[in-house]
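Recall from the previous lesson that a structure prediction takes nothing but the amino acid sequence as input. Here we apply that procedure to Carboxypeptidase regulatory-like domain-containing protein from Candidatus Manganitrophus noduliformans. The sequence below is the only information supplied.
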Amino acid sequence: MKRLAFFLFLMVSISGCGGGGRDNDDVTIILRGILTQGTTQGGQGNPATSGEVAITELNKSDTVESSSLGAYSISGVPVGGNYTVRVTDTNSPTVNVTCEISIPDSTTLTVTSQSGGTCVAGSANIGELALNITIE
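The prediction returns the following tokens.
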């Protein structure tokens, strides 16, 4: 009887071991990049002095200001999804860029479509993916 109880205890204990894996399969990255003004905006590729970069599906955004030299950063973006990234120039609300992106894993960002500007995947640090956007 003691052996049976010990065996059952051991089986219950072992079944909870997952080899050190995570209980939560949700992996997130930081999406960051540089927002620049294209030639039609008179920017000649200069960093944007204003704008908002937003991920529609996640209701997350970051505001670009002149002091940030066009840089934006949005944390907590889940991998394994398709997202719409929208850029609005806060000085000219009629200027918008839309980037459709796919993030299949933590090391890959693919631009699937773009309008109103140019969206280019770039290199970033570990745990980050880069999307550089030019307002045309």
